[in-house]
Design a protein that fits this description.
D-Maltodextrin-Binding Protein, domain 2, 2 domains, 5-stranded mixed sheet
Length: about 475
């Protein structure tokens, strides 16, 4: 294995690196930070790595890149870590692996540690000390459905004008209903970004994607469009089989549909919510408490990989694509991964557009785990019934601060900054909340400090006092 500085790491060298590695876990005495979140404890004062051999899980998606790069470019080894990266069959298997301890951490859906902490689906104390990326997803429709809507789309320069609203899909959904057919679409997991992005896009276009009831993970009460779970690599085959009419997934599985000529991506997640947060690095809370120096070393290595991925306007992306195309990582064709990873995005043959921000790993503070990002996921869980009852604003803040751990991120990033590894300007000065955010397809603004006021803005979605039963939505 070769590090970014060109040194060769053999087994003996790795052991030596472990023995001399210093991983600072922080410099406070624990407690609460200024924003009321958890702070890193000043444990393990000698700074030695407590657990140098680690197994991390991932799903075969482009946005697992920071883990692959940290491994292949030697960033894990530089931090005294011997890391094995292991692909997982689906998000449920990955989640169970982290909770059960078979995995020490993972490339994880942002909603997974949040849902586990509040006990939705499963109960476990998981944390997200680092955000892996911004953007990276898209929504693809079958050729059949694309053919039914394309003629009605406004054109610009001979090509469909973007972003494309789901309102153009509504007549198709109505036609299916008149024929007694359900309109089915796929997403990757009930608490995935993809589920919430697909629901957001559909609702913004006047289509109800359905509500969840307690104990129900199908989420199809009152649904005009029925959503179901399909693992990311299986999306194209499921679309081709006609089981679903479209899907929301991360790359390279939208571009795979283009390559196979079985579907057309119609909108990217950046067009639904500009620079939206995507995956996180997730692990158990007790892991971070038991192994603070190991946790800090992991985060430093991943941050270095994120910086490498975005360096100099993406000069390293071609090399990253080559690494990701290996079968032990994403395993898709080089050209399919490169179609979105190198600053372009193809919607259909002959319609390739510049998309320099389609994958952002380091720029725009992409790695910082903002409380307001966690609050947004919680609002969508409430909007669609995964959180069954109203919660006060403070509950949203407390939950976000229990899961998202910027204190751990800052302990790692500030060490890198002090050592001159990352620029000073790459670490934000913030209370953990972004300001009011626009960039949503429906024009609604989001303020993470006012979650209930935000929920009240939506035409489709649960309102204050409302609950969902199998019979439908009830309450004021």
């Amino acid at each position: 294995m070769t590090s970014s500085r060109g040194f060769q790491f053999d087994r003996r060298g790795l052991i030596a690196a472990v023995l001399v590695s210093v991983a600072l876990a922080g410099c406070g005495s624990g407690g609460k930070d200024a924003a009321g979140g958890e702070t890193v404890a000043a444990a393990n004062l000698d700074g030695k790595i407590e657990k140098p051999s680690l197994k991390l899980g991932f799903i075969k998606l482009t946005d697992m890149a920071p883990l692959a790069i940290a491994k292949e470019k030697g960033f894990f080894a530089e931090e005294g870590l011997n890391v094995t990266l292991e692909p997982q069959a689906n998000w449920k298997v990955l989640l169970d692996g982290v909770i059960g301890g078979q995995l020490d951490g993972a490339h994880m859906l942002a909603g997974q540690p949040i849902a586990a902490t509040i006990g939705y689906g499963t109960k476990a104390d998981l944390i997200a000390p680092l955000s892996l990326d911004l953007n990276g997803n898209a929504i693809t429709l079958s050729n059949k459905v694309w053919g039914m809507i394309k003629g009605n789309l406004p054109m610009e320069g001979g090509k469909p004008k973007h972003p494309i609203s789901a309102s153009y899909l509504k007549p198709v959904v109505d036609q299916f209903a008149s024929q007694g057919k359900p309109f089915n679409m796929g997403m990757v997991f009930p608490v995935s970004t993809h589920n919430y992005e697909l629901r957001y896009w559909l609702a913004a276009g006047g289509l109800n994607p359905g509500y969840y009831t307690p104990g129900d993970v199908s989420g199809v009460v009152d649904a005009q469009v029925k959503l179901s779970v399909t693992p990311p690599p299986q999306m194209p085959a499921t679309l081709e089989a006609g089981t679903i009419e479209g899907y929301c997934v991360g790359e390279p599985w939208n571009q795979a549909a283009v390559q196979k000529k079985i579907g057309v991506p119609v909108i990217t997640d950046d067009q639904i919510w500009h620079d939206n947060p995507e995956k996180v690095f997730g692990l158990r809370k007790d892991f971070a408490e038991k192994y603070p120096a190991t946790t800090a070393a992991l985060l430093r290595a991943i941050i270095k990989a994120q910086q490498w991925l975005d360096a100099d306007g993406g000069k390293n992306r071609a090399e990253a694509v080559k690494i990701l195309s290996q079968p032990n990582y994403v395993g898709a064709d080089y050209d399919v991964i490169a179609a979105s990873m190198t600053g372009k995005f193809t919607f259909e043959p002959g319609d390739t557009r510049d998309a320099p921000g389609f994958n952002i790993f380091f720029d725009k503070f992409a790695g910082y785990p903002y409380y307001s990002d966690a609050v947004w996921y919680l609002t969508q869980m409430r909007r669609w019934g995964q959180i069954a009852e109203d919660k006060p604003d403070q509950w949203y803040f407390d939950t976000a601060k229990a899961v998202y751990r910027p204190d751990l991120y800052l302990a790692a990033a500030n060490k890198l900054k002090a050592d001159g590894v990352i620029p000073e300007a790459s670490v934000p000065e913030t209370d953990g909340f972004k300001g009011e955010q626009g960039g949503f397809i429906d024009g609604i603004t989001y303020d993470g400090k006012q979650p209930n006021a935000y929920l009240a803005k939506f035409k489709i979605g649960l309102k204050k006092g409302q609950k969902v039963t199998a019979a439908g939505v009830s309450g004021s």
